[in-house]
């Protein structure tokens, strides 16, 4: 039987809009006063939000931040349909119905103090949330890689910090993470200044190659983003022999496990099983979702040092 403890702290509350930032690429950062949700939210959990009184169906949106002291939550989202279009019109003082926090969050293991966090597109928020939480944990060393094909929705600065394996010309980083001393690098195929030209997994592979063997065995990978990106991250982690957690993005109707509209096939010791992303996830062990194909991995990723490289 799966652990259901994370389902006992889901709240329904009327949240007040505090601010709404607009960024290039139809991206927005929404800040809400939602004290019940903020009190128990964890990186990887999400909210099911009613975007507008005229739209009965809710939308699942991951959390960028949750501050239990101020009672606020932040959501980074992109306008992709009618719901998010209406949400982008909400202004300070408006009230939105929020159900959350929902879902199984990321779980950090102290025996793996080097956390490699990889976020792509609208999958960036949970990793930023996780990085900021881990930074407060003694002995944890998070490194964040974010990828986007539209302008990054953050103020960017150039860092002088040198990271093993990362080209010194790759210096762009979000100011919000840099101010907290959290190392982060950005990847894109759009030629953005001071960003890595390539996929997030390419940059992650360079960083892993820059670590010595002992340091590499202290790494655990956490990822959220498009399905293809998560599959590539899972292959990268398996190639290097690293544990990996992935947060899935699926369409949801109810968000609380009743409709079973977000089920995915998960590999278990007993065989394949159908799990609901909303309450059994959204975070899963990568090998449960992406069974390792050794032949495909050998074709798509370079092998670690010492395994047949001349």
Helix fraction bin: 10-25%
CATH superfamily of the largest domain: Nucleotide-binding domain of ferredoxin-NADP reductase (FNR) module
CATH class value of the largest domain = Alpha Beta
Shape verdict = globular
> Architecture of the largest domain, according to CATH?
3-Layer(aba) Sandwich
Strand order of the largest sheet: 4-3-7-1-2-6-5
Give the terminus-to-terminus CA distance. Answer: 48 Å
Instruction: Give the ordered list of helices and strands.
Output: EEHEEEEHEEHEEEHEEHHEHEEEHEHH
Count of alpha/pi helices = 10
Briefly note the structural class of the backbone: alpha/beta
| pLDDT < 50 stretches | 297-310
The CATH topology of the largest domain is what?
Answer: Rossmann fold
Give the tally of structural domains.
2
Query: What's the β-strand tally?
Result: 18
Strand-residue proportion = 25-35%
* Rg for CA atoms: 19 Å
Please tell me the overall pLDDT: 90
Let me know the largest β-sheet: 7 strands, antiparallel
Structure commentary:
By secondary structure, this protein is of the alpha/beta class. It is 23% helix and 32% strand. It contains ten helices and 18 strands. It has helices at 35-40, 82-87, 124-135, 175-178, 200-210, 213-216, 227-240, 277-280, 286-289, 294-300, and strands spanning 11-23, 27-33, 46-49, 59-62, 65-67, 72-78, 95-102, 114-120, 141-147, 156-158, 172-174, 184-188, 196-197, 219-224, 244-247, 263-268, 271-276, 283-285. Helix 5 (200-210) runs parallel beside helix 7. It is globular and about 55 Å long. 43% of the residues are buried. Residues 297-310 have low confidence and may be disordered.
